[in-house]
TrEMBL record:
Keywords, in A-Z order: Metal-binding, Zinc
Keyword Metal-binding part of the UniProt annotation: yes
Name used for this protein in its record: DNA-3-methyladenine glycosylase I
Binding residue positions for Zn(2+): 6, 19, 177, 181
Any single GO BP term: base-excision repair
Coiled coil regions in record: none
Protein's UniProt keywords contain Metal-binding: yes
GO molecular function: DNA-3-methyladenine glycosylase activity; metal ion binding
Annotated Gene3D superfamilies: Hypothetical protein, domain 2 (1.10.340.30)
Transmembrane domains' residue ranges: none
Pfam families associated with the record: Adenine_glyco (PF03352)
Organism: Psychroflexus halocasei
């Protein structure tokens, strides 16, 4: 019996490539984790496909998500980003990305790395779920609520438990590939 991919990724080739090559693969690089956190926060209220289409523009606009560089952005850079048609030009989200870069730096000092801090919530290995259909997958969990609450205590902004759960899925903190998906 041929396995079928997660059905959410079948609406476009870009989605399918993202699913096959990135989504749900364990990610442990602080800079890449920061990138996903920023992109997930920019996705709020939009489709993930919109963000994927603008991803390269985001990378250029945000200096490849170099945490130290983003943390040092000035008001002039905020103005520049808010006029960049290649990204989502929401000033609150732009300011949150800068703020969150500063927060990542604090977490790195406290915990050694952003990776160690995040992955400690799942005992450094992906949580295994058993979802049969996309309708079985929750939009948030008690754990995403806890991580969100803890990040907010550390000063992070523009994050909610749904954004954190999407982040956990993307970085494989939780393996939400459907049971029949060959990427599982």
């Amino acid at each position: 019996m041929k396995k079928k991919k997660c059905d959410w990724c079948l609406e476009s080739q870009l989605y399918e490539d993202y699913h096959d090559n990135e989504w749900g693969k364990p990610l442990h690089d602080d800079q890449k984790l920061f990138e996903f956190l920023v992109l997930e926060s920019f996705q709020a209220g939009l489709s993930w496909l919109t963000i994927l289409k603008k991803r390269e523009n985001f990378r250029q606009a945000f200096n490849d998500f170099e945490i130290d560089e983003v943390a040092d952005y000035t008001d002039d850079k905020i103005e520049e980003l808010s006029k960049n048609a290649g990204i989502v030009r929401n000033k609150l989200k732009i300011k949150a990305a800068i703020n969150n870069a500063k927060c990542v730096k604090k977490v790195q000092k406290e915990h050694g790395s952003f990776n160690d801090f995040l992955w400690s919530y799942v005992d450094y290995k992906p949580l295994q779920t058993n979802f049969m259909t996309i309708n079985d997958v929750p939009s948030q969990t008690e754990l995403s609520q806890k991580i969100c609450k803890d990040l907010k205590k550390k000063g992070f902004k523009f994050l909610g438990p749904t954004i954190i759960y999407a982040f956990m899925q993307a970085t494989s903190m939780t393996n939400d590939h459907l049971l029949e998906c060959p990427s599982r």
